[in-house]
Amino acid sequence: MDHSFETQVLIIGGGATGTGLARDLALRGIQSILTEKGDINAGASGGNHGLLHSGARYVSSDSAVAAECRAENELLKKLAPHCIEETGGLFVAVAGDDETHVADFPHLCERAGIPATRLDIQDARELEPVLSPDTIAVYQVEDASIDPFKLSLENMAQAQALGSRLFRHTQLMGFTMGRSSIRSALLQDIKTGEEMVIDPEMVVNAAGAWAGEVAALAGLSIQILYSKGSLLVTDRRITRRIINRLREPSDGDILVPGGTVSILGTTSVRVDSLEDIRPTPDEINLIVDEGSAMIPMLAKTRYIRAYAGVRPLLKPEVEENDRSATRGFTLLDHAEEGLENFVTIPGGKLTTYRFMAEKTADLVCERLGIPRPCLTRTEPLPSTEAGRWSEPGLGPRDWIRDKNPENPILCECEMVPQSIIRRVIESITAQHERPDLQAIGLRSRMGKGSCQGTFCGKRVLAHMIEQGDVAGEEGLAHLRHFLQSRWKGERPVLWGDQLMQAELKEALYCGLSDLERYPRMRKA
Amino acid sequence: MTEVPTMECDLAIVGRGMAGMAATLFAANRGISAVQVGMIGELIFASGLLDLLAVGWREKGILERDPWAAMDLLSKESPKHPYVRLKREEIETAFEEVVSFLEMQGLPYSSQTGQNTEMITPLGTIKQTYCAPRSMLAGIQALREKAPCLVVDFHGLTDFSGKQISAALQDKWPGIRSARVPFPGNSEKRELVTGDIMAETMELSKNREDLARDIRPLVNDAHAVGIPAVLGMEKNRDILEDLRERIGVPVFEIPTFPVSVPGLRLNNAFVRGLGEKAIKRLGQSRVLQAKEVNGGAFVLTVGRREPEMTLRARGVILATGRFWSRGLVADRKRIREPLFNLPVHQPETREQWHRVDFLDLKGHPVNRAGVDIDDCFRPLDGSEDPAFERLFAAGSILAHQDWKRMKCGSGLAISSAYKAVEAFWKMR
Fold it and tell me: Which of A111, B49, B81, B158 has its CA 20 to 30 A from that of B333?
């Protein structure tokens, strides 16, 4: 065996909940190891709108969830302001929408304690001129937009600074079971094949949609439903506020501004498998058709990419539709099934991630016999280097301030200079990880603009080769991998201008360079 | 509406990419009264390499050293490919006519050996091409012999990395290495982009002296020195010779990502050479509207944004390219040909346009979308009949080909332009 580690808590899954839990525990003085088979927020935590709900969306389906959202919304705006833009939000109904629902909405909000103010339609269209002329009702709420990547990177960074460890690209292979507990976990580094044994006191399954698979390794059965949601990214910001359709939650009914772009979604498609989750052109057509009822210009807007996430939903006792299945969370304490040191936290939502982490950490503390209070309710989330460069606009500001001729811009669409790419690479290597183009893209704006990596992919790779981060022909495999991962998001939005862009990309990488004939990333 | 002037001609050629340029040349050489219309074209993006065909069998996508063998495969694997409507002699004649014209314009290409040849790309991959600018020949030879070779790049040029090339090739070509030098006049290492400014810098003897002085001590055992393709515009041939003398070994150019100087050279050579012929070119204008009038002639409204001229032509060659140049346009549901509203061969739904894997060797079905033609290269009307008696199509707008994957971009442009002009010529 190559390595073995002891830890108080092993957390499986590096999404919002897992990283939030790592921080919560660390602030209580409890050390953890977080293992993640992909990268930070690889699942649903990265595949959503980035919407910090006011709670208004859930007033008709689940008033308890609505109230939780409201409370966390207020708390996070205070404690993590650098991850949040206080955009405010509107709920908008258009001609043809269910008028009973429209009429009930203010009362339901009031009952759940969610502030919602009715706006005059004329005033609303002055605030957001792109709203449909067929608008029949508008309410103002306290939605905000949140950067989920920044949030998770910052949570993890503080946990690491306090002594916790992160293993990315590391797969849980199995557990060694004791009579009434998990004794150890076997992990494998997906890139190198290296194996590790972890001896934890407690194990928390925060694997989101994969929670059922993790539980199965411990011999337990959790029924998780997979609901795929696809979203679209526009080439610029369409509205200042978040725009929700005022109707029962459905397809293509939320538009969220985030930095320089807007995000339109979603769909809710039941899938049977977590393999090969990707947005499809048909889903994208549906979202655009639905969204343009609320904001007509969405039919003509340029979209630069799409993405999809899977909402993990606990299978309800009685079948109901996925939109109404609870978005709240349940903490599964497997002591009831005879495993004293194993907890699963499935389901839930980004807005209430902190609350979920708190409840989970409370249970962990109780089991460990270390009763310490939660600090994430009062301690602000620090802003660190790790999460810094995902913010739009920061790169250019930094570059203009330093104005150094030897610091060229490597990503022109998003104005990311070489110095920032370097710092991102260093922040990855500081975590004992090997940098690659995708990891850099996740932690900066690189590749997120309209060219989708056509020019910056080659440039950043050249920089990495020159600096010795990547060697030889391996670089071509990196590039292939990066282009493929961008493609997943591009493919569903290839019409109009974005199709032209894709044609140029293929002309350069295939027509000129024959990259399609070069080796793929070697699997360990 | 204000009156705009009217111009008459036999043949209007719409498009200024390789197909439009070649068609204009063929028309000029045959004494056809022709007018070319088009915005500055895709040639800025052209690598300067003249590919003919390297992949004939799309399912397995095997690279063929012999393009004619690949063409034999095409007739079985892809029987509707435009090449299948052409004879080898026609393709060779067309190529010869273009290449000898370019030579006359001071832009010499390698001689046609009938075979594809391997060359290095800016990614450090190896690609096959049929006919390369002579400025790249020493590199082709060095690769063939795996001779010791130095690739030079410049401080401040982020789009071209010698190290990227040498690192990727290291296993296959251990003798290749790289070095970085200042670009003449850029000792402060400002950001550089490839294009005419860098090319013009190299036209000054003083700058070449500086460059050679920096490269000479790095040569050591290298048999040849590769430099990004920015070595001058019109004087490229003299510059290469001058650098060879100063450095002491042959110097060759390596293609770059856009802006591509070899592409600009092609554009300039055509503009210059066609300017000497009895031909009209309406540069920086586009066809805003096209219609057929009585007797099968065409009336084209031409202008940049507003109508500036009416062009009456007995025939039209449509060489407007694909999506990048808006020869084809796509919305969320369908692909259209915007000028004549020609039927476009295309996959059933958008779901089928692209494969899940960007680099899938089978290629994306949308790349085979385009205009169906008859043996005279006339677009069809949806049945087996031509849409118009004297409307022809050439280049990448044609259906049933995938130039990026089959490596047939220039060859298709040139030979289809040839066939279209010949067909029009014969109808007179």
Answer: B81
Residue of A nearest to B323 (CA): A500
Of B257, B332, B359, the CB nearest to A288: B332
Cis peptide before B271 (omega within 30 of 0): no
| Closest Cβ opposite residue A405 in set B128, B158, B189 | B189
Nearest to B177, CA basis, from B157, B149, B213: B149
Residues of chain A contacting B49 with CB distance shorter than 8 Å: 512
Structural domain harbouring B65: 6-106+264-427
Same-domain status, B250 and B268: no
The interface predicted TM-score of the complex, written ipTM, equals 0.97
Please tell me the distance from the alpha carbon of residue B380 to that of residue B386, in angstroms, as a whole number: 4
Domain boundary at B254, B274, B295, which?
A: B254
CB-based contact B164 A506, cutoff 8 Å: no
CB A514 to CB B255 under 8 A?
A: no
pLDDT of B364-410, one tens digit each? 999 999 999 999 999 999 999 999 999 999 999 999 999 999 999 99
pLDDT beneath 70, residues of chain A: 1-2, 316-328, 391-395, 520-524
Per CB-CB distance under 8 Å, the chain A contacts of B405 are 510, 516
Joined tokens for residue A169: 């690209």
Q: Are A85 and A78 in contact (CB under 8 A)?
A: no
pLDDT tens digit sequence for A24-59: 999 999 999 999 999 999 999 999 999 999 999 999
Same-domain status, B270 and B399:
yes
Question: Distance, in angstroms, between B187 CA and closest chain A CA?
Answer: 11
Chain A partners within 8 Å of B155 (Cβ): 406
